[in-house]
Amino acid sequence: MQSVARGVLGTASFEGGVPTALLGVLLHYTIAVSMAVTYYLVSRRIGALTRRPIACGVAYGVLLYLIMNLVVLPLSAVGMPRFDNVVWVAMSVVMHLVFGLICAFTARRALSAA
């Protein structure tokens, strides 16, 4: 989690022990919950997001991957990420796709219960 805190603290995050790891956890979950809430709020206005959760969830995952790697990280203390580790990039893309699907199906379930 210190690598997540690196976005705010730079490489000093690796020297901060438990406090910087906890900051990383807080940042990680704040970002993830914000992404899920954003999908839910937008899906309240655009019904296709919950009617087609697989296609829209995958698209949302791709969008999240691109935003995190081409906007958020370059603006943080991390800077522009390198894409030379193919395995890492592939795992990151898959993780974002899965998270996009989780957002879509969770929003669908929440809105159908309402």
Mean pLDDT: 95
Helical residue percent band: over 70%
SSE pattern: HHHHH
Structural class by SSE content: mainly alpha
Description of the structure:
The chain is mainly alpha-helical. The chain has one domain. The chain is 81% helix and 0% strand. The chain is globular, with a radius of gyration of 16 Å.
List keywords for this structure.
mainly alpha, single chain, 114 residues
Topology diagram in text:
Blueprint: H1 2-9, H2 17-45, H3 48-51, H4 53-75, H5 86-113
Describe, in short, the structure shown:
The chain is an all-alpha fold. The chain contains 5 helices and no strands.
